[in-house]
Amino acid sequence: EPLTAEQRQSFQGRWEEIRERAAQVAELDPELLVGALREIGDIRLQGSSTAAGAGVAPQEDAQPATIQWEEADRMVQNWAEQHEHPTMERIKELHRVLASGQENNNGEAGQLRDAPSPPMGKNAYFIPGTHVSQAMAEFVRWYNEEVSKSEGERMPPVELAAKV
Known about the structure:
- The chain is mainly alpha-helical.
- The chain has one domain (5-163).
- It has 6 helices and no strands.
- The chain has helices at residues 5-28, 30-46, 65-81, 88-99, 132-147, 157-163.
- The longest helix has 24 residues, at 5-28.
- It is globular.
């Protein structure tokens, strides 16, 4: 469900506050900001039942899900620190890290699905396998278009992250 204008304005205001405070911290101590962002990421991981391995049936030789999620988190943080945006190759690499060795991965980790997915309940929708490649290319195009907009036209980062 799309955000209302009021919600968007509220998120935008809060984001501006966060960005200003982060800039202040970065001026005083850039390493403090990097450390704080990493600590926030660690806290997020601790609250994730998926990262804790719930609902995942690893193969005998697979890394625990927690290690995979931590590795993926480091990759994404590195991309963010380098101001690198999602690309098809980065998305595939992220999937390779997260899905390698997991029994519930019916395809090859790091590759786009081209087969149908089994039904997952009434609230889940999966793009048909034959359309995944096209949908992912459209997503990358949309994302790059969105982030290339001028400051006043682009979505607040919180909304963009929610849509992603």
